[in-house]
Design a protein that fits this description.
Blueprint: H1 3-27, H2 49-75, H3 77-82, H4 88-100, H5 113-120, H6 129-144, H7 159-178, E1 192-193, E2 198-199, H8 201-221, H9 223-239
Antiparallel strand pairs: 1-2
Length: 252
């Protein structure tokens, strides 16, 4: 084969390979969504970086819990019917309002925090278990944050409470998967692993909540140590870490 023909063959092979690469890229689903920041407000002037992180984390956790409520209602439509709602959307709206306004959920009989969570996961609980479970979990998370959903300079977070909340979510997820009602059925249908189906979206969403709580707990535990480190850094920066002039001063 002549050198010229050899080069043409190589070029054709490369063109064919790149064509397949481009086809593969076109067939691959594009990433969904993008990172966006919330509009700046005057209230942020009263927030430290940790305050802002806690506020955003709380917002994300409540959104995750509402997403889980939606998923659970889809797999367990009998539950929203127990609450008298005309549809899943109405049931979700009622639940969101109750959580955001810190209203006690009627079926939980006045119980809050982990007491409410225990009742919602009781095998003989007869009311809307999805709403009770999500409302109780949200309440427990908010209680771990000192009963607040927005945080400012005057607020403080207890690292151990946040850590305990993360463990409580893990325990609740395990109980949801393992416990059975009086008829031997799971309390709620959630994750599914079968020969034809594999759905672990519930576990992933709960995992996000746990991860956010653990991260905030770790940051809160280091708050005072980092304050000392920052003070020393500023002190050193004011005296030792200053740039030196590079141009010689010429005497007149």
């Amino acid at each position: 084969m002549s050198p010229a023909r050899h080069l043409r063959c190589v070029a054709l092979v490369w063109a064919w390979m790149w064509a397949w690469v481009l086809v593969g890229c076109a067939a691959t689903p594009a990433p969904k969504g993008e990172v966006t920041s919330a509009p700046t407000t005057a209230a942020e002037l009263g927030q430290s970086d940790v305050n802002r992180m806690a506020t955003l984390g709380m917002r994300a956790n409540l959104d995750s819990l509402m997403s889980l409520a939606d998923k659970l209602y889809r797999r367990n439509p009998r539950e929203w019917r127990k609450g008298g709602a005309t549809g899943r959307e109405e049931a979700l709206q009622r639940l969101r309002v109750a959580i955001e306004q810190r209203q006690p959920w009627p079926a939980l009989q006045g119980r809050r925090d982990i007491a409410a969570l225990a009742l919602a996961l009781s095998p003989d609980f007869a009311a809307d278990r999805v709403a009770a479970f999500i409302a109780a979990t949200a309440d427990m998370v908010i209680v771990a944050h000192g009963g607040k959903t927005e945080f400012y300079l005057i607020d403080s977070l207890d690292a151990q409470s946040l850590y305990n909340a993360a463990r409580n979510v893990e325990i609740a997820v395990w109980m949801l998967a393992q416990r059975r009602d009086a008829s031997g059925q799971p309390l709620l249908l959630a994750d599914e692993i079968g020969a034809q189906t594999r759905n672990l979206s519930f576990e992933r969403e709960f995992g996000k909540v746990v991860a956010r709580l653990d991260l905030l707990a770790a940051v809160s535990a280091e708050k005072y140590r980092r304050a000392v480190v920052s003070y020393v850094q500023n002190l050193l920066g004011g005296t030792l870490l200053q740039f030196l002039p590079v141009r010689a001063v010429v005497a007149p």
